[in-house]
Specification:
This protein has 161 residues and is an all-alpha fold. The chain contains 5 helices and no strands. Helix 1 (3-28) runs antiparallel to helix 2, helix 1 packs parallel to helix 5 (136-158) and helix 2 (36-64) packs antiparallel against helix 3 (69-100). It starts with a helix and ends with a helix.
């Protein structure tokens, strides 16, 4: 499988994950309100899969614009680093506050999972920026994001605290 095919596969899987999460959210919450932990999981699924989708499409667009592989990887990595850091700064403090609150239904495990789902792709995107061999680090970051989105989706469906 060549590099563009792998990124197309990531985009398709991300879109499928977003679609299934939307259907599950629509049918699962029509007669009741979501708990805070469920809102975190829905948001995490959509954000992680959406970032993987957007990043893989951006990479494809840059390649189609006939940028070199090296420049396409670096431009995509810069955009994703900025986006991921912004999402970490805006989301993690609230998740940890909710997890530390004794009245909240948000367990500390959700905070740890969200931290890992931000940190591991961030490391991969940083490696993609520094290392200029090929797009393996971007693909690894997208795969981690997609894996964490699927894990959050599974926990949302099973309603595991």
């Amino acid at each position: 499988m060549d590099s563009p095919s792998a990124f197309e596969l990531i985009a398709e899987l991300s879109l499928a994950t977003i679609g299934f999460a939307g259907v599950a959210a629509a049918f699962g919450g029509s007669e009741r309100a979501y708990k805070h932990v469920e809102r975190i999981r829905i948001g995490g699924v959509l954000a992680q899969a959406g970032t993987a989708l957007g990043g893989s499409l951006l990479f494809q667009i840059l390649l189609m614009a006939e940028l070199s592989l090296r420049n396409s990887v670096r431009a995509t990595a810069i955009c994703l680093l900025i986006l991921t850091v912004f999402r970490m700064i805006s989301n993690l403090p609230g998740i940890y506050r909710a997890a530390g609150n004794s009245e909240s239904s948000t367990p500390m495990g959700v905070a740890y999972l969200m931290t890992a789902s931000f940190t591991l792709p961030l490391l991969c995107f940083g490696a993609a920026l520094v290392l200029d061999k090929n797009a393996w680090a971007l693909l690894a970051g997208f795969s981690i994001q997609l894996g964490s989105a699927v894990a959050l989706f599974a926990r949302l469906l099973t309603r595991v605290e």
